[in-house]
Amino acid sequence: MPTYQRMLFVCLNDRGDGHPRGSCSRSGGEELLDRLRGDLADRGLKGHVRAVGTRCLGQCAHGPVVNVQSEDVWYGGVQASDVPDLIDRHVLKGEILEHLVVPDEALIGKDHAEQPLPPVKR
């Protein structure tokens, strides 16, 4: 299995019309993922960076959302038009796009008092 330098998880959850928490798919998630995959391939980053569509990441109220690993950065309200900046600045230069960041305190379901799990030992 290949090891990627970065993984971009794009929520594609669809809750249907009118759901109070929104729906990443219905707010542009599919178009966002297509653009990410295309632009990453166009820049020769296939095999180094991977964009993956996921089911619910629990953050549709901020959607569409992208979770970038290994940095564990959550971006919200990301649109296909943000992809060039996301690749140029975050993927290639390691810069955080502050205007898209979902702050930790705004993440849904995150218990800020919980103790993190220990790292996996290999």
Structural features, described:
It is a single chain. The chain has a single domain, classed as Glutaredoxin. The chain contains 2 helices and 4 strands. It has a 4-stranded mixed beta sheet with strand order 2-1-3-4, covered by helices on one side. Strand 1, helix 1 and strand 2 form a beta-alpha-beta unit. InterPro entries: Thioredoxin-like_sf.
What's the topology here?
Blueprint: E1 6-11, H1 25-42, E2 49-54, E3 66-69, E4 73-75, H2 83-93
Parallel strand pairs: 1-2
Antiparallel strand pairs: 1-3, 3-4
Would you summarize the structure shown here?
24% of the residues lie in helices and 16% in strands. By secondary structure, the chain is α+β, with helices and mostly antiparallel strands.
List keywords for this structure.
Thioredoxin-like_sf; alpha+beta; Ferredoxin, 2Fe-2S; Glutaredoxin; 2 helices; 122 residues
Total strands: the figure is: 4
Strand content: 15-25%
The level of helicity is 10-25%
Radius of gyration: 15 Å
CATH fold type: Glutaredoxin
Derived structural class? alpha+beta
Q: How would you state the average pLDDT, rounded?
A: 85
Shape: globular
Cα(first) to Cα(last) distance is 16 Å
Count of distinct structural domains: 1
Could you give the order of the helices and strands?
A: EHEEEH
Going by CATH, the architecture would be: 3-Layer(aba) Sandwich
